[in-house]
């Protein structure tokens, strides 16, 4: 995930992947998937690059929702990619978000799903993404304006967690970074779809009833999702 290899190597890679098999992790995945499906509804593309793909938990999702046939995952962690490969994914590349090994306009979609937070040089990573994308730039982010982010930051002050090194983001910050870097490349971007979920989630707790009641328009969800059209 992102460009801090040591954070997601060895045992941490296995713990990351195992999280999605826990009861809480399964609920988080379902809510995030519901939001992403909502925001990507009716979008159809041929190719997707996920930057900071980790163990590629979203690998099948891109095919299922976007009907993409060519899906590539890139990550700086060898151990993360090793786990992804054990799941049957083959188009996996060991590499850095700040230096993508692809030609311009190689993919219809370039996506960062909770990986941009861990990239040291976000401007460089987004510049690279904007070069290789043809149609849509997608960012799933850990929302700094959420109860979940606050809880994770407090916890990281007391114990060593991966979130100690994370820079939690906001919609406004992501939008600014993408617009500024697109301008440098002579491109324009439009935020066409957005939403958040995990509004009342804390570590280990999530309520489907509360999340369904609030929907995806509440600005303080722990997981935010943005879809930009690039031209």
Description:
By secondary structure, the protein is of the alpha/beta class. Helix content is 38%, strand content 21%. It has eight helices and seven strands, in the order ααβαβαββαβααβαβ. The radius of gyration is 16 Å and the shape is globular.
The number of E-state strands comes to 7
Query: Order of helices and strands, N to C?
Result: HHEHEHEEHEHHEHE
Main beta sheet strand tally, sense and closure: 7 strands, mixed
Task: Estimate the strand proportion.
Answer: 15-25%
CATH class: Alpha Beta
Low-confidence stretches: none
Helix content: 25-40%
Compute the number of helices. 8
User: Can you name the CATH architecture?
Assistant: 3-Layer(aba) Sandwich
Task: State the separation between the terminal residues, measured CA to CA.
Answer: 27 Å
What integer is the average pLDDT? 93
Q: What is the strand arrangement across the widest sheet?
A: 3-2-1-4-5-7-6
**Looking at CATH, which topology would you report?**
Rossmann fold
The class by helix and strand makeup works out as alpha/beta
Rg over CA atoms: 16 Å
Count of spatially separate domains: 1
Q: What is the H level of CATH, i.e. the homologous superfamily?
A: Vaccinia Virus protein VP39
Describe the global form.
globular
Q: Quick gist of this model?
A:
The protein is of the alpha/beta class and 231 residues long. The chain is built from 8 helices and 7 strands, in the order ααβαβαββαβααβαβ. Helices cover 38% and strands 21% of the residues.
